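Class, carefully examine what follows:
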Amino acid sequence: MIALQARRSHRVERIALVGLRFAAFFVILAMAALLGYLAYEGTKTFSADHVSLGEFLFSPNFAVDAGHPGSAVFIAGSLAVTVFAITVGGPIGIAVGIFLAEIAPARMTQLLKPAIEVMVGIPSVVYGWLGLTLLVPLIRTHTSSPTGFGLAAAGIVLSIMILPTVITLSEDAFRSLPPALKEGSLALGATRWQTITRVLLPSASSGLAVALILGIARAIGETLAIQMVIGNATQFPQGLFAPTAALTTEIVTDMPGATQGSLLEHSLFSMALLLLLIAMVLILLVRFVLRRRT
């Protein structure tokens, strides 16, 4: 009887192992296929259409009908919106993470945590719609912007969207610190604020860096919410209240009308490939920071 149960357990373990290996192989195959397809389609801009990499990255002239698929405007727009979002949302997210981990009472933490989790589940189109109906009219009324669309509206919406990621990872970074750090600092006579700023904050710097990097990765790949409020104008960012465009918004705007095999389609695939490479670099940077932290 015992031998029969052992054989059954061994059989179940082998089946589970095969299933897990198949799942891992499927994920690897899917990622390789995605990267290979984007690389194949994205490089046609340079191979089939004979556009130089320098012109694609640094030329502000996006006129595919004339053979000029310059993407510098969209790259600058993506970087500007991302920098705005992480500059505004990063410090706020870290501050809330510190508050939840070190200052907030347990009952308040129990109330705030579900609210943060709800923010994660809100679809991006809802953020964009709220920005379109509330934020854009507010900017149009109280600033010199004639339309309200632009970098400020997109950056504010995006900074709110990255808050859950930065808050959660910042709180985890502080909670993972050894209790002896806090206890030792307080035992030496430091105040709670001195302990947070001079002991805990430097000790959690690697975890906070991971939170900011993943916030940047979340921001630079956002599409729908940004498209609804950025203005979608093919021009460099000329101010907080001037419309511009980003890589993601340009792909969504022009892809439905792109003819198969055209320069426009190839250049849009090249933009998608560029976004994928940026995301991969950010993930590698996260792994590097975590390895240093370990």
Residues 121 and 164 are 10 Å apart (CA to CA). The longest helix spans residues 2-42.
